Amino acid sequence: MLILIVGAPFTGKTTSACTFPKPMKYFDFDHGIESIYHAKDEFGKLIVSEPDKIEIVKFYSEEVYDLNFKTAKESDFKLGGAPPHTKTSVSIMQKYNEELKKVFDNPPLTLVIDSATTMFRVWIDTILYTNNIPALRIADYKTLSGILFRQFIPTLHMLSTSKGIWVIVIDHEIADKDELLGTISEFPIGPSANMGRELPKEFDEVWRQRVENSKYVWRTRKHGLFVGAGSRLHLPDPISPATYQELDKLLKK
């Protein structure tokens, strides 16, 4: 099953995702895995069991860069020149492709990608570096759309269905105002705002993670201004606490 967990920072998305069955492969783009070793429930018990059965694969640069505030101009596109920090993005994505092949060859019970928010930034940097340009062009957004909807998500679907594993993608949320209607909506972050709005349609389950009454919960229906939450399994709303163990009870009913 392919699940998208969306939420604001510090709402327990990583901790909840790591309650899914082990062995688990955890693709870490956000340096956020440390939280699983300390998070406890209301009874003082660690929320994530068997953390030693989580294989962590790191996808981030250890390099340090000077701050550069140059603004892209039309002449910059002719001369070329991607920002210095983009140079590691290609190797990061190469590593992602290699590690995903390993998952297909030797599937764990769960794959967690944390987070799509950061991965999308790496995609953008990869386009800048590969094409040696300082900023995205209109055609580059079409490339990003193709990668998202015709490569990234379909591959995860295939992994989930052909290997029968849980695939959890963690993402953050963003708010935007419709200038015509004047309405404000919240939705997952994508490579662009429009892609973020479309993102939930591609997943089996979309849950918005919240903290309510000091508990991590999954909202499986439209909640507040958030657009896209939904459960094809018709799970109750909310799921509390937001753990695989609670989900497993509901699936067995």
The Rg value, from CA coordinates, equals 19 Å
Query: How far apart, in Å, are the first and last alpha carbons?
Result: 18 Å
Structural class: alpha/beta
Q: What form results from the Cα inertia axes?
A: globular
Can you give the mean pLDDT? 93
Helical segment count? 7
User: What is the N-to-C order of secondary-structure elements (H for helix, E for strand)?
Assistant: EHEEHHEHHEEEHEEEH
The main sheet comes to: 8 strands, mixed
**What is the β-strand count?**
10
Please tell me the CATH architecture by its name. Answer: 3-Layer(aba) Sandwich
Domain count: the total is: 1
- Extract low-pLDDT stretches: none
Classify the beta-strand content into a percent band.
15-25%
Range of helix content: 25-40%
What is the CATH class? Answer: Alpha Beta
Looking at the structure, the CATH topology is Rossmann fold
Written account of the structure:
33% of the residues lie in helices and 21% in strands. The chain is of the alpha/beta class. Strands 1, 2, 3, 4, 5, 8, 9 and 10 form an 8-stranded mixed β-sheet that branches. A two-stranded antiparallel sheet has the order 6-7. A hairpin with a 6-residue loop joins strand 6 and strand 7. Helix 3 crosses helix 4. The longest helix is centred in the middle third of the chain and has 26 residues, at 138-163.
